[in-house]
Design a protein that fits this description.
Helix content is 23%, strand content 35%. By secondary structure, the protein is an alpha+beta fold. The relative contact order is 0.14.
Amino acid sequence: MDGKTCLQKLKLVGVLNVATVDEKGNPQVRNISAVHYEEDFFFFFTARGKNFAKELDQDGRCQILVHTRFNEMIRVSGVAKKSDASLQEERINLIFSEQPYLSNVYPGDTRKIGVIYEIRDMQIEYFNLGTYPIFRETYTIGNYLAEEKGYEISHSCISCGKCQTRCPQKAIEKGKTYVINKSHCLHCGACYEICPVKAIKRL
């Protein structure tokens, strides 16, 4: 698995759930399907007058979440930017050719109200919930700086094993200092709560 493969999985899902934040700090979520995928980035269509476009213009940060038919979850964190003005018309026409239903929504030249945003720098979190233990991995595309998440066990560990018995995914490996296998960790915090010496730290 890698970031580019995840983009192809997004394409197969079709509809993306996209979250932004409005000017009052309130979360906003919408579905978009007017999307075109390249190997290592994607772009999408919306109307300039929509609050969605306003939020992207003000900040650009957004998060996308999908769930596949194979019990995979893919979360994309990135920054959306308007495509270059010289590419707008070409990309709008491309998306309309790939998504014929859009001509019912924006018939004729009313598509000119549209604008194309692209996401090139992104972090992609992949979760396969259909296996045991679960599998998770984080990838980056472009210049996005990945955020470290989850938990780790410090050298304060006394090797009591309580964390290992509590972990629902058996993601903790025994040792002088126990180790969390981050590829299987749910980030649920069960180990963090049970550790008698507070050796487990939230990243």
